[in-house]
Amino acid sequence: MITKLLLARKTVFAVVLVITLSIVQVAYAVAPANDNFADAEEISSLPFNVSVDITDANLEPDEPQTCFFMERTVWHKFTPTETKTVRVTSLGSSVSTNINVYHATGPGISDLSALMCTAFAPPQTFLAEAGKTYYVQSGALFGEFGTISINLEEVLAPANDLFANATVVGSLPFADSIDTAAATSEVGEPLPSCSFSGSASQSVWFSFTPVISGSVSAYVPTAAFTPVVAAYTGNSLNNLTEIGCRNFHHNRLTLSLTAGTTYFYQIDSLFSERGGRMEFRLEVTPPPTAAFSYSPFDPSVFDNIQFFNQSHDPGGAGFQTFAWDFGDGKTSTAEHPFHRYSKDGKYTVSFSVTTVDGRTASTSQVVEVKTHDVAITSISAPHSANSGQTRTITVSINNKRYTETVQVDLFKSTTGGFQWVGGYTQTVPVRPANRTTNFVFNYTFTADDAAIGKVTFKAIATITGARDALPADNELISSPPTKVTR
């Protein structure tokens, strides 16, 4: 009886526990109020910042997915009374977040036209037109759940959006960081010649009047878009004359400017992208650096040496002229000239360059011409020999320039080609006229030589530690062949 009573109490406790846990679970599983498109929270004004726990958010069956798939989403809607540029970010979220912005073309979720998306918090902008409704869909990536932050703010047009309000550059170097997300283009505004877009889109302007003449470089080192920089002369939007254009980051527009003349710089996006944060720099162009190399690196009087211009222009203007002095009374204006020296010696080669905008640089280096050349003049081999007989093979080396260390390798002919016999190294001094240094080899003729009936010897001479200027005479074959009998 007591046992049955205890079992009954345990059963009642278990039922109560399950019911309690169920109540707790139901109380916790509450979706956000704006979980569905139809219940989108209204954004009445900017800036707008909100954090939403999407742990229990859901996904509607017909809900769109742009850029990335999201398992849980919430919705906001925005109908501005004035046209404005809006920046959207998810900064402050505890999960990997994606935010999509749509333009509503009708009342239903199927009437949405995607405008943009921003994942992992980087800001994106869109143009919100007055009277039109925009929907913001936010959610977590990779099935994550937690709190997401949705941040919207109006981006105002930069102060130098219009040509008439161009930022005046006072002195160099100059740097300015601005946001062009809300920049516009003006009627009659010129399109930079190196732009890939159909018309100017979100440009800003700078003006500069140098007090001294000289080369000046303009460029955009960082930008949220692909920049294009154009420079003009003139005093109004309808009489500008383009004098230069460059595109892409760090690509400098370098020009020679005249003191007292006002120059206007226009920065726009290369591909009609939406603008964003950027930095513009204007500075005196640094000088170029002159440099060259040559080949071969160990030239002789037999070599037609090629010189290579390796100069660098940090201004990116490029080089217009080249001036070479080879140190032997000869000169050249080619960019990569050839030159041959008539005798050995050390020559100071001077090289100067001039950029398109007139900046110059020069350098020099010593080129040593040293001709190393030895030649095999003869191979002395016996006219005949017997198998097993040891005879002398003499290789004669002629050298008329510098004392050299030479290795001579001796080969003999076989049915399969030449076979190495031996080799050794010795010093070969300079000898006048046709006097030579001999390399003497003792060779024992073999039964195989006798079976063939004759042997031809080949010698190859190699200078140690230097390049032979005329290698064609470093190899010789004995003639006539040595007759070999048993």
What can you tell me about this protein's structure?
By secondary structure, the chain is mainly beta. Helix content is 7%, strand content 46%. The chain has a 5-stranded mixed beta sheet with strand order 1-3-8-5-6, with no helix packed on it. Strands 10-12-17-14-15 form a 5-stranded mixed beta sheet, with no helix packed on it. A 4-stranded antiparallel beta sheet has the order 2-9-4-7, with no helix packed on it.
What's the short story on this structure?
By secondary structure, the chain is mostly beta strands.
Low-confidence regions: 1-27
Global morphology: elongated
Number of strands: 35
Order of strands in the sheet with most strands: 1-3-8-5-6
Helix content: under 10%
Q: Which class best fits the helix and strand makeup? A: mainly beta
Q: What is the arithmetic mean of pLDDT? A: 93
Largest sheet: 5 strands, mixed
* Percentage of β-strand residues: over 45%
Distance between the termini: 126 Å
Radius of gyration: 42 Å
H/I helix tally: 2
